[in-house]
């Protein structure tokens, strides 16, 4: 088990990585799924043998309220159907924390429940916010859970210039679920999970 990292350099590196993902040209992405709420693309990850996913959709609400629903905190468990528990293990200055959370089984439990321990950081970006995270090798895995690993991931949320009550939400997710899983099952689950994330989030914001 690694000790907890110094949060400031990790937060800075994480933000720079996400900003770099955000500048990847459209031609490098391939559409993986499209719904009325979001479009999901993917490209091979530079971090591991799976994919980096990009999801994007317009959400009707102000940036701060949307990000409050996404980042670690009381809202997330209420509406995110995939997340089954969440504990803040450590809180640092500058909107940084370490959280442990568990996810439900997926695809008729072909993908068993997973546990993650993530460093999370929320910061300003242009006129909006970026909330981002990366998994840490910290703490013992709980029994009955496979410990997954999130490579650098995050959500950019910026107000639409001509419609300030709406925000453009763009996510970058690359999750290594680990365990013995067929890659096709992982790819199906990831695309669907990201599309559902938008529809669930929209319902929660309207509730």
Question: Overview of this structure, please?
Answer:
This protein has a single domain (7-21, 29-205), classed as START domain (Alpha-D-Glucose-1,6-Bisphosphate, Chain A, domain 4), CATH 3.30.530.20. It contains four helices and twelve strands. The protein has helices at 7-22, 63-70, 74-79, 183-206, and strands at residues 30-34, 39-44, 51-59, 83-92, 96-103, 114-125, 128-135, 146-147, 149-150, 153-160, 163-173, 175-176. A hairpin with a 2-residue loop joins strand 6 and strand 7. The longest helix is centred in the last third of the chain and has 24 residues, at 183-206. The chain starts with 6 loop residues before the first helix and ends with a helix. It is of the alpha+beta class and 207 residues long.
Helix-strand layout with pairing:
Elements: H1 7-22, E1 30-34, E2 39-44, E3 51-59, H2 63-70, H3 74-79, E4 83-92, E5 96-103, E6 114-125, E7 128-135, E8 146-147, E9 149-150, E10 153-160, E11 163-173, E12 175-176, H4 183-206
Parallel strand pairs: 6-8
Antiparallel strand pairs: 1-2, 2-3, 3-11, 4-5, 5-6, 6-7, 7-10, 9-12, 10-11
GO biological process, one term: intracellular cholesterol transport
Protein name: STAR4 protein
Domain START: 10-207
